[in-house]
Specification:
The chain has about 375 residues and is α/β, with parallel strands linked by helices. The chain contains 15 helices and 13 strands. It has one domain: TIM Barrel (Alpha-Beta Barrel), CATH 3.20.20. The protein binds flavin mononucleotide (FMN).
Length: about 375
């Protein structure tokens, strides 16, 4: 209730101002308690339910599979609030070595009638040293010692050596991370996506790994949904050799499905939310069919309810993330998705989440089986 009210008030603000307000509130842990209470009221906290959703993945113990996707907490400020909302893990970033201001405003737009957002933020962030200060402080708290935190890293727009940027940021921040994500898939830094080739990714991975404080820290790669299939498969084929610990599928899309109706649909930038659900799940399913099972996948793109979360898992996601639905619907959805996912697994007689991973090879079929309403999705 409080979450819905706060969200409807926030929607009177421009999208970026609402985002900043949310970060401010979350940095002080000022989040509606409804999600937590909802979980407790609905029995989520009890042993029975927790045991269906918790799992070992990437050498870490996740209490539930739902994470906060990168881009929401770009500067590692909002972890306290995010974990209070019930997320099983949080990915901060994208963080670049040097601070940068990003693209001119306005640069983020709601597409309310499409349940979507377009952003062209352009990696606005305070830089790796500032993030280090915040993360080292947070890691000393009891929440910081308990929770799983990923750090998503990128390159500065004006960098002359982007590979060195990945190495520098991971060297500075890996001591505070449970995993690192190499982001080569944001559409708002010119040329970044061109680094999604096997040879460049292999160079980035080697550079990142050379700077890690712990040899076994997982390093994941986040890919775009706009690659052609042959290039995508070529990258997948080389991933095990490069030492990638997992893949995150997908980032936002530069495509514009015909189904979009919002006045903002032609804004430049990356589209996220419901219109990304089917295509991002298709890339996920394709990756699951090609990669060895020991390489986990994180499914992200258009998750806005428990059925969509379940569909990602059926299509091959070991873990899942969301961003846009939190911004558009409010924080109550976190508890609803986690509890609802548990209920869907129980409905289908699945004893543990890991038994559902990759059970359906076709993305559209996974969305149908999970019960995700298929209006507003497009290919
Ligand atoms: C406003 C906004 C900013 C984002 N910034 C980043 C970013 O800095 N790094 C990144 O890897 N992904 C970023 N993303 C992509 C999300 O992490 C996610 O991959 C994508 O939005 C699909 O998930 P969703 O449909 O649940 O939002 C951003 C998304 C949005 C909406």
């Amino acid at each position: 209730m409080i979450s819905r009210l706060a969200t409807s008030l926030a929607h009177r603000l421009p999208a970026e101002a609402a985002h900043r307000l949310a970060i401010w509130a979350m940095s002080y842990g000022l989040v509606p308690t409804s999600a937590n209470q909802g979980l407790a009221n609905q029995g989520f906290a009890n042993q029975h339910t927790a045991s269906r959703l918790d799992q070992d993945c990437l050498g870490l113990r996740f209490s539930n599979p739902l994470g906060l996707a990168a881009g929401f907490d770009k500067n590692a400020e909002a972890m306290a609030g995010a974990f209070r909302l019930g997320f099983g893990y949080v990915e901060v970033g994208t963080i670049t070595p040097k601070p940068q201001s990003g693209n001119p405003k306005p640069r983020v737009f709601r597409l309310s009638s499409d349940a979507a957002v377009i952003n062209r933020y352009g990696f606005n962030n305070d830089g790796a040293e500032q993030a280090k200060t915040r993360l080292s402080k947070w890691r000393k708290t009891s929440a910081g010692q308990r929770h799983i935190l990923g750090v998503n890293i990128g390159a500065n727009k004006d960098s002359l050596d982007r590979i060195a940027d990945y190495a520098a940021t991971s060297a500075i921040l890996s001591p505070y991370a449970d995993y690192i994500t190499v982001n080569v898939s944001s559409p708002n830094t010119p040329g970044l996506r061109d680094m999604q080739t096997p040879s460049i990714l292999a160079e980035i991975m080697a550079a990142v790994k050379s700077g890690l404080d712990r040899a076994h820290l997982p390093v994941l790669i986040k890919l775009a949904p706009d690659m052609n299939e042959a290039d995508f498969l070529a990258v997948l084929e080389r991933l095990p050799d490069m030492g990638a610990s997992g893949v995150i599928l997908t980032n936002t899309t530069i495509s514009r499905p015909d189904s979009l109706t919002s006045p903002n649909k032609d804004q430049q930038g990356g589209l996220s939310g419901a219109p990304l659900l089917l295509s991002s799940t298709q890339w996920l399913a394709l990756a699951r069919s090609r990669l060895p099972k020991h390489i986990p996948l994180i499914g992200v793109g258009g998750i806005d309810n428990a059925a969509a979360a379940y569909a990602k898992i059926l299509a091959g996601a070991n873990l899942i993330q969301l961003y846009t639905a939190l911004a558009l619907q409010g924080s109550h959805i976190i508890g609803e998705i986690i509890h609802g996912l548990d209920a869907l697994l129980a409905r289908d007689g699945v004893k543990h989440i890991t038994d559902a991973v990759g059970q359906v090879t076709d993305a559209a079929e996974a969305l149908k089986m999970s019960g995700r309403i298929t209006d507003r999705i497009s290919g």
